[in-house]
């Protein structure tokens, strides 16, 4: 009877997997001997090593649509599941900004080999390492193999002003600004020079990750990546969001209010820089009780969402056009798993809507019929604690890229150390130094006053 009900209501949802007209080939290890490999296409690799991508997503019966899946991301209690504790390092950037790197597992781990893969995570709009969607992946990824985990290291890159990271200049972050992840990777590569770096981005972080990979090409420090819930065409999806009552009054206001509350936590920084254009705009924004996301971006992000140039932009529309990632996906040159949902209330325009003909050979693009925004909740072992479907395919992808595939040789720009700074050769504006190190971060604890999960 349960199977019949699920079929009638369409609750069994096998993902649609898209590949480009040609799929890139990679060297797959056949044994422990370094030279014992075979060339396989990404399509065949997914068939053999990522079987969960072909398993049906079965949403929890009480979360049957994208709205409920998305809302549960914000109201669900995830404090007792997927526990991950971190050790924080604060990096000072060349322009005086601060980025927070949260390392897992925390503390000294001498048993982990120097060439163990490192997962580099970019979180969503106002999130951080505490987010349940981040911990859903990192808890099993960083657990020892004897406990059923991958035994990998991970580093969550917390944006300026997010997750308790101080805001030390009036510059914020945005969906298009990539220099902070580029800077963070300098430091991560310097302390793990033998380890392959694997990227994973969620929502806004997926957009930043896509743009970074496209800009770097074969010079990327990340060997492979996974983009989850990426917003792609920011202008088109913003217009779609504003075209419905729920989009305008629920989701857009929730996101905009989250950003406003985050901004409020750092008023002292803006008060110390009254000459900055963004500082002049903040009072008007704070007078709005629940600003929409577009209002925040049109007032604040388009001015202070990154360095100059290209910031400032004249409007949110100009910023959205520049920051979108759908038009640069073709320039990515590392294997990428992309996952979106067909009922995401925030993202309704996807690069594969018109078919996969233009897809990059390095892209595996999966779309589930349901799952909402960063949800994918299935029934778990306990009714009140669903599990996330994405956990399985993402872990299979990370394991395959970290252990089973001989990834193409990359040619990242060399590092240099200069007057205590780690810098990228040829870029005087890209560099960092350690500001502080060693603080313990409890992964399940977010910031008061902010709506988690998005």
According to CATH, the homologous superfamily is Alpha/Beta hydrolase fold, catalytic domain
The succession of helices and strands, N to C, reads HEEEHHEEEHEHEHEHHHHHHEEEEHEEEE
Strand content: 15-25%
Read across the widest sheet, the strand sequence of neighbours is 1-11-10-9-8-6-7-5-4-17-16-15
Tell me the radius of gyration: 21 Å
CATH C-level label: Alpha Beta
CATH architecture: 3-Layer(aba) Sandwich
Give the uncertain stretches in residue-range form. 1-9
Portion of residues within helices: 25-40%
**How many structural units, i.e. domains?**
1
How many beta-strand segments? Answer: 17
Q: How would you state the average pLDDT, rounded?
A: 92
Query: So what's the overall shape?
Result: globular
Number of helices: 13
Instruction: Enter the CATH topology name.
Output: Rossmann fold
Walkthrough of the structure:
It is a single chain. Helices cover 31% and strands 22% of the residues. With 454 residues, it is of the alpha/beta class.
């Amino acid at each position: 009877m349960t199977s019949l009900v699920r079929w009638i209501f369409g609750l069994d949802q096998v993902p649609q997997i898209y590949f480009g007209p040609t799929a890139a080939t990679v060297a797959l290890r056949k044994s422990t001997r370094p030279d014992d490999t075979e060339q396989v296409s990404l399509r065949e690799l997914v068939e053999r090593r990522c079987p969960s991508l072909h398993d049906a997503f079965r949403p929890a019966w009480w979360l049957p649509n994208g709205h409920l899946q998305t809302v549960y991301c914000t109201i669900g209690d995830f404090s007792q599941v997927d526990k991950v504790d971190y050790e924080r390092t604060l990096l000072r950037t060349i322009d005086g900004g601060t980025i927070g790197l949260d390392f897992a597992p925390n503390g000294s781990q001498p048993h982990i080999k120097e060439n163990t893969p490192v997962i580099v995570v970019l979180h969503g709009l106002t999130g951080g390492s505490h987010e349940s969607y981040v911990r859903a992946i990192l808890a099993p990824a960083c657990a020892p193999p004897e406990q059923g985990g991958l035994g990998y290291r991970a580093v969550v890159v917390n944006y300026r002003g997010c997750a308790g990271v101080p805001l030390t200049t009036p510059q914020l972050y945005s969906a298009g600004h990539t220099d902070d992840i580029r800077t963070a990777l300098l430091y991560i590569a310097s302390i793990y020079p033998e380890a392959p770096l694997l990227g994973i981005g969620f929502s806004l972080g997926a957009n930043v990750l896509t743009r970074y990979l496209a800009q770097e090409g074969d010079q990327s420090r990340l060997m492979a990546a996974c983009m989850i819930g990426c917003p792609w065409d920011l202008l088109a999806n913003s217009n779609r969001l504003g075209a419905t009552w729920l989009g305008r009054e629920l989701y857009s206001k929730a996101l905009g209010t989250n950003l406003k509350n985050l901004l409020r936590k750092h008023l002292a920084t803006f008060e110390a820089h009254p000459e900055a254009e963004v500082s002049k705009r903040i009072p008007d924004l704070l007078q709005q009780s629940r600003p929409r996301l577009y209002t925040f971006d049109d007032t604040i992000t388009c001015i202070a969402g990154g360095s100059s140039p290209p910031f400032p932009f004249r409007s949110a529309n100009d910023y959205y056009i520049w920051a979108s990632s759908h038009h640069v996906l073709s320039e990515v040159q590392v294997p990428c798993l992309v996952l979106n949902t067909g009922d995401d209330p925030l993202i309704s325009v996807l690069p594969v809507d018109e078919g996969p003909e233009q897809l990059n050979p390095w892209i595996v693009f999966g779309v589930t019929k349901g799952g909402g925004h960063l949800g994918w909740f299935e029934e778990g072992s306990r009714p009140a604690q669903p599990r996330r479907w994405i956990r399985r395919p993402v872990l299979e992808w990370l394991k395959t890229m970290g252990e089973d595939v001989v990834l193409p040789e990359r040619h990242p720009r060399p590092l240099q150390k200069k007057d205590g700074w780690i810098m990228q050769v040829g870029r005087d504006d890209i560099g960092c130094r350690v500001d502080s190190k060693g603080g313990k971060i409890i992964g399940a604890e977010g910031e008061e006053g902010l709506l988690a999960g998005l």
